[in-house]
Amino acid sequence: MKLPKNPFHPGEILFEEFLEPMGVSQSAFAEKLGWTKAKLNELIKGKRGITAETALDLAEALNTSPKLWMNFQATWDLDQAMKARSA
Q1: Domain extent listing, the chain
Q2: Alpha helix locations (H) across the chain?
Q3: Per-residue pLDDT tens for 32-85?
Q4: The CATH homologous superfamily of the domain defined by 10-86
């Protein structure tokens, strides 16, 4: 099984592939999710990961599947672990 060479953090995907194209501000999206602006910003900046609850919230708000978000996170986590192991 091959992994992407340099996977993106799920927060970066959220921002670049969803929020920017939709023209939605972080503040407006955080409000829609019932999250704090800080929580959303930490996710976008890669300081926070996707949890099962987060995946459910994003899937509902963006009409995606929760598995999509969990897979983004798992791919990111595995890549980080492999980099740490080879360092």
Answers
A1: 10-86
A2: 10-13, 20-22, 26-33, 37-44, 52-62, 66-86
A3: 999 999 999 999 999 999 999 999 999 999 999 999 999 999 999 999 999 999
A4: lambda repressor-like DNA-binding domains (1.10.260.40)
Stated pTM of the model: 0.91
Question: Residue 50's closest CA among 8, 6, 2, 82?
Answer: 8
Contact 66, 56 (CB under 8 A): yes
Q: How many CB atoms lie within 10 A of CB 68?
A: 16
- Residue 17 Cα to chain centre, angstroms: 10
